[in-house]
Amino acid sequence: MDSTMEASKSPSNKIGSGTASARCPQLDESRQISFESVKEQQSKVWEAAVEESFTIEKGGRNDLFTIEAEDGVVDDALPVQNASLIESSAGQFWGWCSCRDFEREHVCPHLCAIRMHAALDMLTIPRE
């Protein structure tokens, strides 16, 4: 991974205004994501999110989402992915996704799609 990608391990299990009460595996795997860097340095990931139609629904916590790719542009073993995305008070994004792309690249079209939907006021990304 390119060191300018700004991906790093999440320092804590903080979600929203409090600390997560149960240890949550995806929080340990959260990465800091610069979506501007993704657009510039990993444009194929960003473009896949633009080209795909997604159904995004809120999960059991304010930072959790289920996301389903509808057109088959995004190739993954599971049709529905689980994802977490939050924005820090400093404007940095921290995210996690259950897809293979996230495991390999620490960013994926699913997280990009969540960010795009938030930019269009179609959903809200919680602030830490």
TrEMBL record:
Keyword Glycoprotein: no
Tagged with keyword Lipid biosynthesis: no
Sequence ranges assigned to domain SWIM-type in this UniProt record: 82-119
Source organism (scientific name): Halorientalis regularis
Protein's name in the database: SWIM-type domain-containing protein
InterPro entries referenced in this protein's UniProt entry, alphabetically: Znf_SWIM (IPR007527)
Keywords: Metal-binding, Zinc, Zinc-finger
PROSITE patterns: ZF_SWIM
Location of region: Disordered: 1-24
MF annotations from Gene Ontology: zinc ion binding
Superkingdom of source: Archaea
Stretches with biased composition (Polar residues): 1-20
